[in-house]
Amino acid sequence: MITARAAATFEPVGRSVATARSFVRDTLQGWGFTDVVDDAVVLTSELVTNAVVHAGTAADVLCLRTEDAVRIEVSDRYPEREIPLQSSPATMGSPDREGGRGLQLCAALATRWGVDYTPTHKQVWFQLDLPDRPVGTRAAGPQLPLDLLPVTDGRVRVAVVQIDRAGAISAWNEDAEELFGYVAEQVTGKPLTDFAAWPHTPGTSTGIADALRLSRWEGSYGIRDSGGRVTPVYASHLRVRDTDGEPSTVCLLVRDDERAVLQTPLRGPAPEPGTLSEPHTADPFEIFIGSPAPDDLDGLLQRTVERARDMLDGDAAFLLLATDDETELEVRASTGLPSARQRFARVPVEAGPGRYGSARMPAVHEDLTVVPGAVPLLNGTGMRSVVTVPLKVEGRLTGSLGVAAEAPERYSNEEALRLQFAADRIALAVESARLGELERLRRGSLSFLVEASDLLAGTLDRDQTLALMAQMTVPTLATWCAVYTIADQASEPYLSYVLHEDEERIDGVKALLTKVDPPDPVTTPGARVWAAPSEAAHQAALRTSMRNLGLGEPMTVGTGIGTTLATASAVGGETVVLPLVARNRVIGMLVLGKPSDEHFRQEILELAEDLSRRAALALDNARLYSERMAISQSLQRSLLPPELPQVPGVEVEVIYRAAGEGNEVGGDFYDLFPIRDGAYGFAIGDVCGTGPEAAAVTGLARHALRLLAREGFGGPAVLERLNAAILDEGARSRFLTLLYGELWPQEDGSAVLKVVCAGHPLPLRLRQDGTVEPYAEPQPLLGVMDDLELYEQTMTLDPGDVLLCVTDGVTERREGTRMLGDDGLADVLTTCTGLTAGAVAARIMRAVERFATDAPSDDMAILAMRVPGLED
């Protein structure tokens, strides 16, 4: 028999879902059906969502009361929308899908449910049976034998103690005198903390002084009596104002073993239908979350806030997780709030005023407009009342769960207890999922840093290092990145590189950053927020919008509101700066940014800090390498001769290849210079070893040859004096192989040469008939013996003849066990008949390079001189 009914219609807008929840809650509470309110609100929320959001029609909600049950019908105007049959649960789809989840909940929570069709409506209904106990009973315990009842010492005494705003006792009743042995005159005006023995709960730092400032509080502590003994008490605190508006706290105290007099019993939602006969099979976690539970942390947190919102009929809910050091809470899930703006935002646990100063305890704010900023997360959201509870695992704070409503005074201690009961159900599962995610992040971070280190160590090029730094951070760590470099202590930071995950945004971001003063180069480690780019982007977007509306200066050619707004969106989120510190000096800054209304996760910032340290060292190494290479190349260029002179009647060509990356000059050298009218000196040599010592001998040899030859000394005298100069270098000396000669072009087209070959590969002469022969005799090398007896050999190059001089890097070119050698070089030279000097040198070099696939391991120098033939 139906004893009461209530009906309402809700428009197809998102806000209707919350309104429908309120309607059902108010109706059932008015009927006294508080035991089934939570299940009814959850099911109504899902069914109305299906109607107004997914079906897109108005929803009619009808509540029917009978003597032992309540039936709720939800109708929409979309009968064509297919409903899965009850007999085919497999067709309902995943519980994480939006469609069909309400029907799964009906099957799980309702005693009975069904679907009715008419030509114009579709109706989904469910029935919840009432528990068999008197309506209006909030909590009750079973009858117990007398020996199991709590023992009291005489009559039960309730001490009433009032504390003023300074924490001092202002009232002390007779029961307090009996319990603790002090008369009122002995304690009035003294702080309660002088008498309280506060047992800190493991993992918390809240003390009695903190508890006295809360609007409501229940818990245990001790009071030292007049004999010095500690009496355990159970207390209920209520914060009030007197007639003058002064705050004070009323404390009701009983002996701890009599706590049932004051303690508010914890009450969870009624058990789901079908579980009363088998209570041991009910999983409290699954009762709240639903089955199957999401297997990922984000899904679990999102399901949690949705269930909490529905359970307390809220307009919004949020869940924050504590950082590793428990000093901050990070927003990880929310519903009914601007999630993009809030996700990964961080608020302190203890520091600052307001709600998060007591994050370790349940708290209720009946009207946030009275205490602005009490819950930083809700600033500017329109929420008026909020209840928050901690998530704890083994006494350690792991997070905070909150539900908020747009109306004031929606929540009281009753809702806080219910929400805390739910939080206790899920805390362990959330912490387990969080630790699993953290472990995956750390493993991924380790792999990321190893790969980053390998990439950064693989280059010593500054520009490539800058590019790698940016490419490793975007999009893995940030949406966009900028790198500032500092040349020296007196230089200003310079914007060296900009990268955005969308290439079309790079120019806009770079242009914006060039108009913003760079961040200050501080050595303090860690990421710090930099607001300048976001503010500049929003100002630029505002000016562009005003110009587009004709309210400002006309837009210049090439600019547009789309580009500016896109840039503002790209850099409008959180921007952080990490210093690049190497060798105790700031050499730059790494700037990471998010798009509008996004924040960085703490784990990402820690990973970015590790990367910045490695990148700074790599960038500084590239700088030092570049400076060293510039100095080295400048020195090496000074060892090369200036432009070779033109020798009348003789073609001259030189090819030089220094082994090693970045080398312009090695141990080999060459020279060709005028001595006097009609005479020219030439040389080709090889200094033993590499490095500064070899370079010093190279410079000494080249300049000494020129100086001594122009002083009129002949070839043997020049080399003997050079040998003495090398030996004078002492430990820095290096032995030297050298081919030195003097050249005199003749009027008949030939050329006369005088040559001294001191330990150097012999020069080869190519005749016009293709024959090749050595053109000198070997003599001792320089830099080994004091007394050298050298001699020169005179020869004539006829028209068409070629003289080829090489260093041992040519003849000792190897491929495995094979070596080119003197014979191989001679074979190549026989194919060069009729070629110019340049062509001869090029063919020799090409043959040497093709002889082996590996890069040359020794320097190579080729000097070719040819006397033109009569046919030329």
From TrEMBL:
InterPro entries: Bact_Sigma-Reg, GAF, GAF-like_dom_sf, HATPase_C_sf, HATPase_dom, PAS, PAS-like_dom_sf, PAS_fold. Residues 160-190 form the PAS domain. One of its GO terms (biological process) is regulation of DNA-templated transcription. Keywords: Hydrolase. One of its GO terms (molecular function) is phosphatase activity. CDD domains: HATPase_RsbW-like, PAS. It holds the Pfam family PAS. PANTHER family: STAGE II SPORULATION PROTEIN E (PTHR43156:SF2), STAGE II SPORULATION PROTEIN E-RELATED (PTHR43156). This is SpoIIE family protein phosphatase. It comes from Streptomyces typhae.
